[in-house]
Specification:
- There is one protein chain.
- It contains 22 helices and 18 strands.
- The protein is an alpha/beta fold.
- The strands form three sheets. The protein has a six-stranded parallel β-sheet with strand order 2-1-3-4-6-5, sandwiched between helices. Strands 9-8-7-10-11-12 form a six-stranded parallel β-sheet, sandwiched between helices.
- Strand 15, helix 16 and strand 16 form a beta-alpha-beta unit.
- The chain is globular and about 75 Å long.
Length: about 600
Amino acid sequence: MAMQVGDQVVRRLREWGVEQVFGYPGDGINGLVAAFGRADNQPRFVQARHEEMAAFEAVGYAKFSGKVGVCTATSGPGAIHLLNGLYDAKLDHVPVVAIVGQTARSAMGGSYQQEVDLQALFKDVASAYLVEVNVPSQLPNALDRAFRTAMTHRTPTAVIIPSDLQEEEYEPPQHAFKQVPSSPPSTLPSTTVPAEEEVRRAAEVLNAGGKVAILIGQGAREAADEVVQVAELTGAGVAKALLGKDVLPDDLPFVTGPIGLLGSRPSYELMRDCDTLLIVGSNFPYSQFLPEFGQARAVQIDLDGAMIGMRYPTEVNLVGSSKATLRQLIPLLHRKEDRSWREKVEKNIEHWWQTVEHQSKVSAEPVNPMRVVWELSEQIPENAIVTADSGSAANWYARCLRFRGHMRGSLSGTLATMGPGVPYAIGAKFAHPDRPAIAIVGDGAMQMNGLAELMTIARYRELWSDPRLVVCVLHNNDLNQVTWELRAMGGNPKFEQSQDLPDISYADVARCFGLHAITVDDPDQLADAWRQALSADVPTVLDVLTDPEMPPIPPHATFEQIKDMGQAVLRGDPDAWHLMVQGAKAKAQELRR
């Protein structure tokens, strides 16, 4: 039998080292689906419950594997459903290739069923590379460029293949006019370094500083050891942007933790008091949490020159890979003998973690959500992968979870979309089937799409050598983050018709799918519940009934935020008295020594 275009796509995916494609079938990709079957499901077709989830799973896989994630969907509605996950990849700089079907070429332009202008649909999200394949010989170059562009620019790309073309006989490009050949799949070099003169200028700035602060993001992940060396030489404290939370462990005494609205007080104080700032691999957008303009001399290192120097007025901009650039910089740095700044930073960090522990143990009705994550920190394996969904779950993930060892973690950092927590964890398990994965998810995200993906977990769990995948649901029957934003940003009381969620047992649903499940409604049950979940031989749902009135108060709350909160209470918030009591108890813990 002659090789069809669909067969060539599947074959080329194997040559690129792709082991699984996340997707959902439809007649717009029937030729491709049939090719997976003829190839004995190599690479594996992983069927999500919805195309958006397939895209999120590809993003999660790419984030935790360091490889390109691949997703596929049919024409029209399937392609549309991919968009949110692909935008998540675009905004968090994650390499993903989407292979999308289209109506038959003979029907294009005829307002045919499920015909959508996919070029227009994907024009923005796949702006780095978007192509429609219309003849077989176009294929290898189109697919290869999609991979190379995704890898080089850390971005999503899209290849559109009409349904009838997928079943045509494949013909490779010829050595002829208007034919474009391609080269075999290969790794791409990623090491770039700035000019030596610029590195020397950066060293002069850092050596002149007396109170050095370092801000790292996900772009510093490959350079963790080098960041530690720079911090030791300069006596700096190191704050972490949310996507860089897993770059350095929190048991290092100079790591101040997260920064920003979901940040820690030591990170706030580090930026408030420093006189020199080094930014490595971060595009942290909230300049109000960085030093006052004119307060600090600043140096930035980033691989993407287009993104450099745009968050803070930086004096020296080094365009290059973080590891190679820091290796050039380190020999030029002088060790600071005066360690008083470092000692102050470390003291602030020690007090902060004590505060977090005290806040986590504040009584609540029924369970304090901070306690859920704090107890996880006490038991979590050092090779665990943690995902968090958007919403108040992200607050507790950011502030309360102490990373150590080789833990990894991520969430939708820039798009901040609801829904990726569970599919990210599924993608993580396909990336590292030998490591435990934990998703911290609010009940809003579970009702939006997480419940359906429990079926995906149940379907594929036998493929994972380590069976541990824990979905921890913060069950408070409230779209909690938005409720607090209504109060703190506009002084508006909770609007129950928009904010309250239907109450169901997530544990009961999990048991229906053949998963292990534990319900927790008492904080004293938490330690044992986590112990059971982390030792189970089957994926587990931890359904924890939490108090929606535990306030995610920033450790540096402004007067305006406090005033707006007070206005919300005065305007008749339905839980006014309880939220005031919980807020007072939580804030009081910062005063303890």
